[in-house]
Amino acid sequence: MSVKHAMLALLYEQPHHGYEIKIGFDDLVQKKWPLNPGQVYTTLDRLERDGLVDSPGSDEKDRKIYRITDAGKEEFMNWLYTPVEYSLLKDTFYFKWLCSQKVDVGQEKEMVEHQRKTIIKNILQLTKFRQQLEEENEQENMQLLVDGALLHLEADLKWLDMIKKK
Q1: Which of 35, 39, 41, 142 is the most interior residue, by most CB within 10 Å?
Q2: Would you state the pLDDT for residue 34?
Q3: Burial class (CB in 10 A: 0-12, 13-18, 19+), 115
């Protein structure tokens, strides 16, 4: 996740002061990815330094207003249309499993079972969250993210079955 680009997206709509950006970010991600207010201002300082945002001044309460520049819009659009790369052959659990085989600790089956329990716990948490979103008629976008995560977890369970057979 890129806080920098999320902030550019919020400023793409209209100029904002820092607190509005914080609130907009929280709304965007349903308050599921905490953003420290200090991070908002340090990121805004970097964006301003890099020429991606500027300030036309302050509002009536003397809060500095930020707006996206043409360079910021270009940066945002480039980021938006660049495909996301996946780490195809780099998985932390699998690496641990390989290491356990290397030193022959004899705990591979237990490792797989612990991982399975963790995945099932995550599935239950996400399913509960998905139900809350539906009950509250919350953003469909967050529901899509949850559905995608659930599909990944289901695939991980199938993958663990394959590892277990080795």
Answers
A1: 35
A2: 84
A3: buried
User: Buried b vs exposed e over 144-162: b needs ≥16 C-beta within 10 Å?
Assistant: ebbeebbeebeebeeebee
Q: CA 11, CA 24: separation in Å to the nearest integer? A: 10
Residue partners of 98: CB distance under 8 A and separation at least 6? none
Handedness of CA 33, 36, 37, 40 (dihedral sign): negative
Query: Do residues 150 and 126 lie in contact, with contact meaning Cβ atoms separated by under 8 Å?
Result: yes
For 3, other C-beta atoms within 10 Å of its C-beta total 16
Q: Say if CB 10 and CB 25 are below 8 A apart.
A: yes
Query: How high is the mean pLDDT in each 10-residue block of the chain (166 residues)?
Result: 91 95 90 88 96 95 96 96 81 85 82 94 94 78 88 94 83
Residue 123: Cβ-neighbour burial (10 angstroms; 0-12, 13-18, 19+): middle
Give pLDDT, residue 1.
63
- Count H helices and E strands in the chain, helices first: 7, 3
Cα separations in angstroms, 117 against 109, 111, 160:
12, 10, 11
The answer to whether 44 and 53 have CB atoms below 8 angstroms apart is yes
Tell me the two tokens of residue 101.
Answer: 């085989």
